[in-house]
Design a protein that fits this description.
alpha/beta; 312 residues
């Protein structure tokens, strides 16, 4: 009788343990299935009217670049990633006979056909004059974002915006733009009454506004250049002096970063800077994930090489 009682208690305890364990299982599965939002950021800079790939002549850049190969890559990535932003950091114009002949029309049309979401202005985008840039923007399906150029009383008045918020799934991504000092870099008659303002002050003010508007991530499109050997304002200085910018997509200095550079900003957080060379030979790709509380994480950063010989 005593033995039966012990067996009963033992069997009951085992059954009870199994029930408790079974009740715990849904909690474990639920935690591992927590929803994570993802976004892929693609970016270019300093394409300089390189619509075709470099000729296959045995030179260093032979077969690289070209909008056909870039468009094919972008199409492939959009097919596999639900949320994609495609951005450019300026100097769309100047560098091939296409610009000399057509003044930027095919460059802007190509970007529109590829579905660019936004760009900022580079110094060479003034090369045809402000009237020309305004004319070419008629072909643009994307905004020109820049917050430190005051273009009131110029042909560009009303043609640029300081920022834009993109809703990508459950995420709000704020984009702002900053440009380089034009004096001494661009002939006075080409930028006219454009007023250059301190890019750090303008970027911080705009980023603060985007933060208040509930953006989960803030990206700056910059044509300042990555770094200099003097106190000239650069992406590096902006990254260290900003408060709310998560990512700076740079241009102007034609640097090809193997991976984004990391800086500690004024809040003690991390601001990344990336730049992908010139002539459209590379497209940068940054894959971010956001946890339930919108904490962001860079899952992967890599370069995509673009060109005719890559497609074959």
């Amino acid at each position: 009788m005593q033995t039966n009682r012990r067996n009963f208690l033992k069997d009951s305890a085992m059954a009870g343990g199994a029930i408790v364990a079974a009740n715990l299982l849904p909690t474990v599965v639920f935690a591992s299935d927590e929803k994570v939002d993802k976004i892929t950021i693609l970016h270019t800079n300093d394409v300089h009217s390189r619509l075709e790939s470099f000729p296959l002549d045995g030179s260093k850049n032979a077969g690289l670049g070209g909008v056909a190969a870039r468009a094919e890559l972008i199409k492939t990535i959009r097919a596999e990633s639900a949320q994609v932003l495609l951005l450019d950091a300026g100097d769309i114009f100047q560098g091939t006979p296409y610009f000399n002949l057509y003044k930027g029309e095919p460059e802007i049309k190509a970007m529109s056909m590829m579905g660019y979401d936004a760009c900022t202005m580079g110094n060479h985008d003034f090369d045809g004059g402000m009237e020309n840039f305004t004319t070419q923007l008629k072909h643009a399906s994307f905004p020109v974002i820049i917050c430190n150029y005051e273009v009131t009383n110029t042909p560009m008045e009303g043609k640029t915006i300081p920022y834009q918020i993109f809703n990508k799934g459950n995420l709000k991504i704020g984009i702002l733009g900053v440009g380089i000092e034009l004096k001494g870099l661009v002939p006075d008659n080409l930028y006219g009454n454009t007023i250059y303002k301190n890019p750090i002050e303008c970027a911080n003010k705009t980023a603060e506004l985007l933060k208040r508007k509930g953006c989960d991530m803030i990206i700056c499109l910059s044509h300042l250049g990555d770094r200099y050997f003097d106190d000239k304002i650069s992406d590096e200085i902006l990254a260290k002096e900003c408060f709310d910018i998560d990512l700076i997509i740079g241009g102007h200095t034609h640097r090809l970063f193997p991976e984004p550079r990391k800086y500690t900003n004024r809040r003690g957080g991390e601001t990344l800077v990336n730049q992908v060379g010139w002539a459209g030979m590379h497209v940068g790709r940054l894959d971010y994930s956001f946890s339930k509380n919108k904490k962001k994480n860079l899952d992967k950063a890599h370069l995509n090489v673009i060109g005719e010989k890559i497609m074959k």
